[in-house]
Amino acid sequence: FFKRKLLYQKLPWKKVYKAKSVVMEFNLRNFSFYLVFFSRIIFRKDIFLWGHAWSRNGKNSKSENLRVIFKKLSTGYIAYTEQQKKELEKQLPHKKIYAANNSIYFKDEMSPSSLNEEEITDFIYVGRLVKEKKILFLIEAFKKATLFLPAETKLVIVGNGDESQKIKDYLF
User: Fold this and answer.
1) Global pTM?
2) Which of 85, 88, 107, 119 could staple 99 via S-S, CB 3.0–4.6 A?
3) Is-contact 47 56, C-beta < 8 A?
4) How many H-runs (helices) and E-runs (strands) does the chain carry?
5) How confident is the model at residue 107 (pLDDT cuts 50, 70, 90)?
């Protein structure tokens, strides 16, 4: 609603009520968030918030005071990185704080691919298709890189967002 300033999700309310714990995306623009959050608080049921530790505008954003209230009322928080977890542990010393990295491997587990260069044929982007993610820049960079890649190499883009049509128009 209102050009993505307000969201609403249809939810399985019986499951939301009966669940021992609920993990919710921490999104203040989602009207459903408030309904679930406060119903869980009223019935004294666990609710964990999940997402970035801070809003897009950082720790000094206008919404941070409100976000802190929700963080304090929640059972705990699941952040994206170990660094965010450490920062939240300082802000919320008596809460359960976890890190669920938004990747398959931890940094120290990553290494160059054991595949031969000839075996690598696809580059894959999975995520929101919004201006901030610079997908058109990725496409331009990929075009330039194809000069040095095998002919069958593809760029696969998976996602949806405000830039979807613009990307399709650019590609086709």
Assistant:
1) 0.61
2) 85
3) no
4) 6, 6
5) low
Residues 6+ apart with CB under 8 A from 79: 51, 52, 53, 85, 88, 97, 98, 99, 100
The structure tokens listed for 23 are 């993990």
105 Rama class: left (phi>0) / alpha (psi -120 to 50) / beta = beta
Kindly indicate the confidence band of residue 117, based on its pLDDT and cuts at 50, 70 and 90. low
Instruction: List strand residue ranges (DSSP E) for 7-65, in order.
Output: 21-25, 46-50
Mean per-residue pLDDT for 30-47? 92
Please tell me the predicted confidence (pLDDT) of residue 114.
Answer: 56
Do 79 and 98 meet the contact criterion of CB atoms below 8 Å apart?
A: yes
Q: In the chain, how long is the greatest CA-to-CA distance?
A: 60
Pinpoint the alpha helices (H) of 43-163.
64-73, 82-91, 135-145
Sign for the pseudo-dihedral over CA of 127, 133, 139, 145: negative
Spatial CA neighbour of 67 closest among 55, 79, 76: 55
Q: Which residues pair with 46 in a beta bridge?
A: 21
- Number of neighbours of residue 82 by Cβ within 10 angstroms: 12
